[in-house]
Amino acid sequence: MRYEAPDTLEGAVALLSGAPGEARILAGGTDLLVQMRADVFEPALIVDIKKIKETRAVAEEKGGWRIGAAVTGAELKEHPRLKQVWPGVIEAANLIGSTQVQGRATMGGNLCNGSPAADSVPALIAAGAVATLAGPEGRRDLPVEDVMLGPRKLALKKGEFVVSFLLPPRPPRSSDAYLRFIPRTEMDIAVVGAGVSLTADAGGTITAARVSLGAVAARVLLVPAAAQAIVGSRLDRPAQDRLEAAARAACAPIDDKRGTIDFRVQVAGVLTRRAALIALDRARTA
Amino acid sequence: MAKHHIEATVNGDAMEFLCETEDTLLDVLRDTLQLTGSKEGCSSGDCGACSVMLNGRLVCSCLVLGCEVAGHRVDTIEGVAKGQALHPLQQKFLEHAALQCGICTPGFIVASKALLEKNPNPTDTEIRYWLAGNLCRCTGYDKIVTAVKDAAVALRKG
Description:
The structure holds two protein chains of two kinds.
Chain A: E1 2-4, H1 9-18, E2 23-26, H2 32-37, E3 45-48, H3 53-56, E4 58-61, E5 64-68, H4 73-78, H5 82-85, H6 87-93, H7 99-102, H8 107-112, H9 120-127, E6 130-135, E7 138-143, E8 148-150, E9 153-154, E10 161-167, E11 174-181, E12 192-200, E13 206-214, E14 221-222, H10 224-230, H11 237-250, H12 261-284
Parallel strand pairs in A: 1-3, 2-3
Antiparallel strand pairs in A: 4-5, 5-10, 6-7, 6-10, 8-9, 11-12, 12-13, 13-14
Helix pairs in contact in A: 6-9, 10-11, 11-12
Chain B: E1 4-10, E2 13-19, H1 25-32, E3 51-54, E4 57-60, E5 73-75, H2 88-95, H3 105-118, H4 124-130, H5 142-157
Helix pairs in contact in B: 2-5
């Protein structure tokens, strides 16, 4: 098994596209090393992308924020500004694993691990985040909701990898929230996850929203019908009921040891409503 | 394939070692550098027995490749005591009997030290959340939390 740690995007792309066998990206390694040990993967090549500056940077760009794919959860939490602008994204990233895992785990890895239960992904999708990919044909941008196709299946072509995420500019009175259900208080895989991002006007009426659900389908879902259910409302009880119904209608979960279909559908509605209420509350002072 | 030749700073000393790509930092510490204080519990990042500091950040050394630490700084349990003088955390773990079999203890000490450097006066809840990635299967957590709080008091007094 070969290990390379290129310091340029071009170097990484050349390695990935030229690799004869299976190649894997190493960012935080909190999924990759576990899967290698469990013989899920036996890559011929590991490309560590952490020496590439763009994967490790957090910077303002065009009024929004660009976050490198290999920035760790702990670094996101410590960032002086991100938490105020994107509290939902930061809290979602910080729900992943223990303190030790937070010291290594990244949002790029969380997305590219290809799990429908990934915690940071619904928050990124609700945020309208766009993933910037580098590949043999250059760069391209892909909305985060289009990166994952199904469990362990990504829309990335051979030689491509996620370099960074761009979170869009925030109008006044915008905020977000992410909630997940697990049967304990910490360190578990989401049974359901719900991310909501919204903007309100001065009177508290929601003018724009995005809703995303995790662990209720083969991929993390963007649910436009749920967003439509609350735009134009002040999230009064009828709007909350419409939101819950739309969230539940989007669910197509599996039964497994962590939750039944009925339970997941029920909880998806509840979490979406609660996340929306938190996001609106935050938006009032944002 | 030839082994990787890695140079890193371990507990303040410049060290070099050879490793295979698949060798974890924990493998290197224990088997190559003979620093066996870091323990192998689960090898999947769940138990925290292999906790070390990598560039000042708490990580599980079982989830880091040896070749990733080239040019970086690694601090392990072996660097916590100063010669024969135990660190206050080590002393308080002893005083409060916060260990039985001791396998989890190096990880708890390294993780608790990282906490107290960041937060010198943590609440019980903050201690429990911070240490949620360190599992103890025999002592239970109450004595550990008590020892960490008492060590925090000692450290604040200086």
